[in-house]
Amino acid sequence: MGYEFGRWTAERLATYLTEQTGIDLSSSQVRRILKRKKYSYIWAKYDLEDKQDPLIRGKFQEKLAEYLRIAREQPERMQVWFWDESGFSLRVIRRKNWGKRGRRKNLTGQRRRGRVNVMGGIREADRKRICFFIKKGEGDIFYEQLQQLNKLIKEEWISSEFSTDDFQELGPKIILILDNASFHKRKDILAKIAQELPNFILEFLPAYSPDYNIIELVWYSCKEYIAHRLFQSVDELKSLLDKLLNQGELVIKWHRNIKNKGNSVYVAI
Questions:
Q1: Residues 74-132: pLDDT tens digits?
Q2: Where in the chain does DSSP place strands (E)?
Q3: Tens digits of residue pLDDT in 241-254
Q4: How many angstroms separate the Cα of 112 from the Cα of each of 93, 200, 201, 228?
Q5: HEC profile of 9-53
């Protein structure tokens, strides 16, 4: 309705209706009316379409489709990896809780008790994941993790009875799909990748297009899983994340929508 906020509380709605109708309504009156009409207060799904460029997205989708075709038909020639970063926190996300009527529970103002940052990728062909725990997302750490990814792929190459010396020249091209984070595009990092990791080809997503990155579904599924569990420490959370992300214990429904992520992540695959 032209307002800059996206969250319509009963208070805001009451104020708006009073301005539009001249009838003075309280938030509790509005809330009772809405409940009587079978409305409930739930989070809306935000949409990114108004910020996306359809032409750029279309060209990227064509390029991605071609990469995927080659990778599926000739995996020894090309691999497609989706890369991203995410954070998992012990902070209090919601302040609602169960309690006896008439006794309101007091919560501390401390909203952040600890955080685990993760950086990693997923291979489209077999959904193999490789995730690293990091202090924060930055260019140097990004480059270090790409070196680890390159090492993993090189070990697979050698285990297939290929020569180590042939990897740089004959090994698969690694197409890395990633977002436009500033440290992904640092000039010195890009120069080091081009010089020391020539098998890597970085393809940056169109603006506001997380739906083309299937690792978003990994993060979402993992956060959905841990949302129902209690943790006494960051180490306990980190241990579970390692099992879920790196040891294959996380079960993911690949053909599903991600709530509050605009488009569905599987549309491009």
A1: 999 999 999 999 999 876 455 556 667 777 666 554 445 588 999 999 999 999 999 99
A2: 78-89, 115-123, 129-134, 173-178, 200-204
A3: 999 999 989 989 88
A4: 9, 37, 37, 18
A5: CHHHHHHHHHHHHCCCCCHHHHHHHHHHCCCCCCCCCCCCHHHCC
Residue 218 phi, psi dihedral angles, 5° rounding: -65, -50
What is the reported pTM?
Answer: 0.78
Collect all residues with Cβ–Cβ distance below 8 Å to 25 and sequence separation of at least 6. 14, 17, 18
Question: Within 10 Å of residue 20's Cβ, how many Cβ atoms?
Answer: 9
Residue type, 1: M
Contact between 68 and 80 (Cβ < 8 Å): yes
Tokens 């359809």 found at: 54
Instruction: State both tokens at 215.
Output: 């690792």
CA gyration radius, the chain: 23
Q: What is the pLDDT of residues 78-94, one digit of tens each?
A: 999 999 999 998 764 55
- The rounded distance, in Å, linking the Cα atoms of 219 and 6 is 24
Domain ranges of the chain: 1-42, 49-245
Element (H, E) at 265: none
Query: Of the CATH numbers 3.90.650.10, 3.30.530.20, 3.30.420.10, 3.10.410.10, which one belongs to the domain with range 49-245?
Result: 3.30.420.10
